[in-house]
Backbone:
């Protein structure tokens, strides 16, 4: 029985390209990976938003209204609903003048119990160091 | 950690690499990243080359762009795809693409 | 020898990053490694039969078939990403698999190295 850790690092801006959307949907796919593995083996994904990537977390996205597509905000909430470890770089939020009130921190409105964590970049560096593989999107 | 970074861009991603730390860091310039290895902007070499790392540039990508090994900054070693495979498997534990 | 899992979102023809991924896979297989190649997003364009070779454009269909023939290379397209782009099962070239994203995550489980090319 083993668990492999994947660290998804989201640095791309949302919507113009699908990179950050796919990062989240791939990370969420870790929930159903057991069908391919031996009993007890797992793949555990975490998500860290860095650089411009923190802008994926802005609340109030209206992708469905204007383009008929689900929002990155919705996917970000789903990662929290699924109790994934979500880290948001503190320094990058501050650079954009953002704080907790501007961004998706939890999924309480859809029954989630896990919150995102705003952390110093050094914590995200540690996350990369402890992961088996790092996937930058 | 021992980390290989495949740097594929010239204008973006520098901030990401600046923040990375590793016990052993290999920066392999591929795609448009090869310009870091050879081009001077305003007379200055790429700021990335000042980072504490081993630097490499992919022959297939710099020659595609009209750059020769003679143009490479002295800090950068020319490598081919086979070398990159060997480095990924033998010299570094993890590999990322920027 | 080891296993390399490559995941890519890069466009066929529109981005040479996909060519890089294929060439790296070739180099790895040539050295005796196994490679799993996952295509999501725009990279699923590679999972479409009938690509034509023009000198102005990348032609990856042939090297991919040669890689599949080695027996040390698996190539899988994201089914949802392909369908969204109008590529159906019957459009897939021989030897390609189509699965959901958990196939890729499962491939990383026993990979020695994972290279994720998360953009164009």
Residues:
């Amino acid at each position: 029985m083993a668990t492999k850790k994947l660290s998804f690092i989201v640095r791309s801006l949302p919507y113009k390209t699908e990179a950050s959307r796919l990062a989240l949907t791939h990370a969420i796919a870790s929930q159903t990976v057991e069908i391919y593995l031996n009993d007890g083996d797992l793949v555990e994904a975490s998500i860290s938003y860095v650089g411009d990537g923190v802008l994926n977390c802005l609340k109030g996205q209206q992708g469905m209204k204007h383009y008929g597509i689900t929002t990155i905000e919705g996917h970000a909430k789903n990662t929290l609903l699924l109790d994934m470890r979500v880290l948001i770089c503190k320094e990058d939020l501050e650079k954009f003048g953002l704080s907790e009130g501007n961004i998706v921190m939890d999924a309480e409105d859809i029954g989630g119990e896990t919150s995102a964590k705003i952390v110093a970049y050094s914590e995200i560096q540690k996350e990369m160091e402890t992961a088996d593989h790092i996937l930058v999107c | 950690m021992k980390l290989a970074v495949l740097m594929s861009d010239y204008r973006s991603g520098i901030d990401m690499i600046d923040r990375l730390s590793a016990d052993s860091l290999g920066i392999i310039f591929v795609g448009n990243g090869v310009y870091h290895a050879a081009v001077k902007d305003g007379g200055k070499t790429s700021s990335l080359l000042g980072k504490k790392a081993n630097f490499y540039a992919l022959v297939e990508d710099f020659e595609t762009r009209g750059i020769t090994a003679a143009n490479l900054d002295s800090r950068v070693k020319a490598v081919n795809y086979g070398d990159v495979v060997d480095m990924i498997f033998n010299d570094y534990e993890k590999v990322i693409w920027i | 020898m080891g296993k390399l899992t490559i995941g890519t979102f890069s466009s066929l023809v529109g981005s040479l990053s996909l060519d890089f991924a294929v060439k790296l896979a070739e180099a790895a297989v040539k050295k005796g490694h196994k490679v799993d190649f996952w295509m999501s997003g725009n990279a699923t364009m590679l999972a479409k039969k009938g690509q034509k070779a023009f000198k102005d454009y990348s032609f990856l269909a042939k090297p991919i078939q040669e890689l599949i023939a080695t027996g040390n290379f698996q190539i899988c397209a994201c089914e949802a990403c392909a369908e969204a782009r109008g590529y159906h099962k019957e459009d897939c070239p021989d030897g390609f698999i189509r699965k959901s994203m958990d196939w890729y995550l499962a491939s990383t489980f026993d990979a020695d190295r994972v290279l994720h090319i998360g953009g164009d």
Notes: The domain at 2-97 of chain B is CATH 3.40.1260.10 (Hypothetical Protein Ychn; Chain: A,). The two ends of chain B are 18 Å apart (CA to CA). Chain B is about 30% helix and 25% strand.
